[in-house]
Structures are given as C-alpha cells and as structure tokens.
Amino acid sequence: MTSNYSPVLPVDYKDDHGIKEFIAEFFRISDDPEKNEAWVDFYHDNGTFVLNNTTSQGREDIRKARSAMWDQVAERKHEVEKAVPARFPCPKGEDCLDLTLFGKVHQTLKSGDTRSVDWVSHGRLKRQGGSNDRWQFAYYRVYLV
C-alpha cells in the first residue's frame, strides 16, 4: 500500500501558512491505528468531525469516531492529491483558513479484502492565538465518493 501525504497546492497560492506540513502530519497520524490521541489533538476542544452521515462534536465524540474507524480496517493509507486553501472572514482574534482536499484512501480490511475509495473533504482550520499557534480543525467533513 502506498501513501502520499504531500498535496499539490494551486499554482498561484504563494504562502501555504504551514498547510502542507499540517496535512502531511494529519494523514500520517490518520493512517496509524495507535495514534488516536494524536489524531484527536488535531481538533479544537469543541470541534466537529463528520464522516458520511455521522457527526461527532467535541473531543470525546471525535475520539470515539476515530476508534470506530478502525473496527473493520487492518491497514489504511491515504493519498492526498490536491489541497485548495482559501481565506474567508473569521471572528476577531482568530486566524482561520478553509481547506478543501481531494484524495484516495486504500484499505485492507480485517477480513482480508481490500478497497480503494476516492474522497473529498472540507475543513475550517483555526489558530486561536494567531499565526504562532498550530492549526487545528474547528470543523472537518469527509465525503466518500
């Protein structure tokens, strides 16, 4: 199974604000079943994670969703093909960035079957303390296609 965590950004996007590194680390951790807490740390305390039609709100719900993602999966590798970051107005004192990602995930199930699924996701990233803090998801939704 191969993985590629470094997406292509738009050609006219000059400053990635550490986005490529954030994405690469998020998906490296996402593909490791032993890294549940590290994965949850990518979300704000009151963040939202949506997968399919299941919404998880807050760190405890997100932690449960993360654990459930591995119930039937033995191995998972993401390919992150493209990232489209965009700036929209955000509340005063916050540094925000919207992010749309395109990719594919390859999975080996515990049954031995394999599957590959295309996905698109949308996230809203925030840095509460400004540009020196690390990015975290305030909202992240994954669409499997």
TrEMBL record:
Protein name per the record: SnoaL-like domain-containing protein
Naturally occurring in which organism (per UniProt): Magnaporthiopsis poae (strain ATCC 64411 / 73-15)
